[in-house]
Amino acid sequence: MTQIANPNAVPQEVWRGKAYPLGASYDGSGTNFALFSEVAERVELCLFDADGTETRLTLPEVDGFVWHGFLPNIEPGQRYGYRVHGPNDPTAGHRCNPNKLLLDPYAKAIDGTFDWNQSLFGYTFDDPDSRNDDDSAASMPKSVVINPFFDWGIDRPPTHDYADTVIYEAHVKGLTQTHPDIPEQMRGTYAAVAHPAIIEHLKGMGVTAIELMPCGGGLIQPANLPGSYTGCISEATAARSASPGSHSSTWAAHVCSSTISPSGLTCAPL
Length: 270
What we know:
This protein is 11% helix and 24% strand. By secondary structure, the chain is an alpha+beta fold.
């Protein structure tokens, strides 16, 4: 359940921050938030505590349609979203509605799932031209600030010359889910891509780099919607993390890459 924070709570500092990079960027002392919108008139950053309490902060600056602000002491693991104030004119393609919590389109991690109900839609089901102001926060997953620092240890890029590079594009699940030499519990994960059976297969074809098809936060596709091989609807399909309980496929991709590179292969998620 989402609760609005106590108005008497100690206010969170919000500095100007930077318009780039887009998304939430942690630098060791705090987090910069940046969101692009050509039509927004005001953008609220919504921070969520572990119990669901929501604190709303207005991003103070806008440069080139990028709304931004820096919050000191906001660390990895912080759950957040946005509320955008602006025109609500569906005929012009504008559906700004601050009652609807928005995921960060540049988020590197997402926590939770969609609870499909009326609150997630900007209109009522029986009237597509209407406006629905039910608050959606309780039914929305949340974006998560991640730690961008990864210990690569002694790992180094294989540095193949472009003239000698052979790139193999693959789908994490499609490549590993039915492979008989990969343990069943590992199939469909980044760890499976780094399994010796896959590496041997790729090297046997002369491959020097594997490029993984969309790997990121995703939603479960409703059964009545047409599908695709990647499962993409509005987000990239999610490969199961190699780190149980991890919010981020980014961490798992790093582990996959650092495991593969000693074999002479390069791994790069799209």
